[in-house]
Design goal:
CATH superfamily of the largest domain: Class I glutamine amidotransferase (GATase) domain
CATH class of the largest domain: Alpha Beta
CATH architecture of the largest domain: 3-Layer(aba) Sandwich
Strand order of the largest sheet: 6-5-7-8-21-20-17-14
Helix content: 25-40%
Strand content: 15-25%
Radius of gyration: 32 Å
CATH topology of the largest domain: Rossmann fold
Distance between the termini: 77 Å
Shape: extended
Length: 484
């Protein structure tokens, strides 16, 4: 057998070339496979504009069922959608993305009920939800809604001067209403005023005093379909029947959020002490102090905030605030709380102010001054959370409550300050037993507009359009002249 060709130089070089080609193909194939399965990127923007939030990552990585996101738009717009949606699919193999051009596949678009370009549907098999826009907040909200069965109703108490959900002004609650509805909650108002009697009362005669309500008069109660009850900054005292209704609701397994302001008297504005409601909350382990927390650290001046708006950066390990480390929150006109263990259930503080803060009890004048000799020095507790355990010991009937010494920290004019919005939604998630959703949520794109005056615009124009080109021309002419 002739084996000389095996020893030839040409054969040896050919074997080397073949080996190199095989190695290169194998390396490229492995690299592409890894890149497809483990897509990694680095976001160098200051506000992490091209990174998904902690909440989105937690929800997508925690999927235990297949979910499909379908994007209906012109094929020329698919690239814009892929910038966001492909980040979702890279987090979990259980999430798939489909891009459909309704002009090329009209039967599929019609079956899905698509009416406009840019429609996004999220289908988890439990329910199908539509994302209102191509933003992380709306897509993640639709994903969460598609995974949750049943309705979650947040009922805001009204009738005693509470903040309005429909008020879009600076002191309204329309922003948190919008945030709740984007996160799978429905909102509505309920009244706990004394209901009418069961029988028709006889007409009164002139000068005759009003008779007490009959024994069979209907009493107010919290609707049974309320997932969370919110008491948002009442200006007037609650009646005892209303307080009894709240007590029965929580102690029978209900969930409630109390946002109670200090009893201030500033000009014509006056907030009642609401003693009956405060006494009820005290039986659960949380005492509402009649004072005002003031922050003297000066840090608030960075954000144009005065001492009446304490900043909080110190949080406990409770699930509501566990993910808020290094995130500042602000609480305008807040009272302080004292927390102790109740007889039935638990109570624990959520966060407190820094050491450079005071709690003053002199709160009935427009000018509030600090007296270091008599005022309580920080840290000061501003919020607490707790549970109420029924005598039966049934965990399914465990009541939950959160108490915050201010209702102003979620007003339209400040709710988007750093972590305020996240903190409010975390409270809702904990109260509704959706602890798996507690995290830092998607943030809106940062406004980085450049504001310049007319004079500055003229300087930029002449320097870039006149002087710089002139310098280049003069430099070129000088070089030509020297060479000549």
């Amino acid at each position: 057998m002739n084996t000389e060709w095996l020893k030839a130089r040409q054969t040896r070089y050919g074997a080397y070339l073949f080996t190199y080609l095989v190695l290169i193909i194998a390396i490229l194939g492995a690299t592409n496979w890894l890149a497809n399965r483990h897509n990694k990127s680095y976001d160098a923007t200051s506000n992490k504009r091209f990174s998904l939030s902690e909440q989105t990552v937690k929800v997508v990585k925690g999927l235990n069922r297949d979910v499909k996101i379908t994007y209906f738009d012109k094929a020329t717009e698919f690239g814009r959608a892929r910038d966001l949606l492909d980040r979702y699919s890279n987090l979990s193999t259980k999430l798939t993305i489909e891009y459909v051009d309704p002009d090329k596949k009209p039967q599929l678009a019609k079956a899905a009920g698509v009416r406009t370009y840019g429609t996004i549907y999220v289908d988890s098999g439990i329910r199908k939800e539509e994302a209102k826009s191509l933003t992380e907040e709306d897509v993640t909200g639709a994903l969460i809604r598609s995974l949750k069965s049943g309705e979650r109703n947040v009922c805001f108490v009204t009738g005693s001067g509470e903040h309005s959900l429909d008020d879009s002004g600076r002191t309204g609650y329309s922003s948190i209403k919008e945030a709740l509805e984007k996160n799978n909650y429905k909102t509505r108002t309920v009244s706990l005023l004394q209901a009418g009697s069961a029988t028709t009362p006889e007409p009164l005669k002139l000068g005759q005093p009003a008779a007490p309500p009959p024994a069979n008069a209907a009493k107010p109660q919290v609707p049974s379909d309320c997932t969370v009850l919110v008491v948002a900054g009442p200006k007037y005292d609650y009646t005892q029947p209303a307080v009894d209704a709240i007590k029965a609701y929580v102690e029978n397994g209900g969930r409630a959020l109390f946002l109670l302001d200090p009893p201030l008297r500033l000009g014509r504005e006056e907030t009642a002490a609401n003693a009956a409601l405060a006494n009820l909350i005290q039986t659960w382990g949380v005492t509402l102090n009649k004072d005002l927390a003031l922050d003297t650290s000066g840090i608030g001046q960075i954000f144009n905030l005065g001492p009446e708006v304490p900043l909080v950066t110190s949080y406990e390990s409770q699930p509501i605030v566990r993910d808020l480390k290094d995130v500042a929150t602000a609480f305008p006109l807040s009272r302080t709380l004292d927390v102790k263990s109740p007889d039935k259930g638990t109570a624990e503080k959520l966060f407190e102010t820094g050491t450079n803060s005071f709690a003053t009890t002199k709160i009935n004048s427009a000018e509030i001054r600090i007296d270091p000799k008599t005022d309580k020095k920080g840290p000061l507790t501003l919020a607490a959370a707790g549970t109420y355990n029924s005598s039966s010991g049934d965990k399914s009937k465990e009541g939950r409550f959160v108490v915050v010494g201010s209702s102003n920290w979620v007003l339209n004019n400040i709710v988007r300050f750093n972590g305020n919005r996240d903190l409010f939604l975390n409270m809702m998630n904990w109260l509704s037993s959706d602890e798996d959703l507690i995290s830092i949520r998607p943030k809106e794109p940062e406004d980085r507009r450049l504001n310049i005056s007319g004079r500055q615009m003229s300087v930029l124009f002449y320097s870039s359009m006149v002087f710089l080109p002139l310098i280049v021309v003069v430099s070129g002419f000088a070089v030509w002249w020297r060479r000549r």
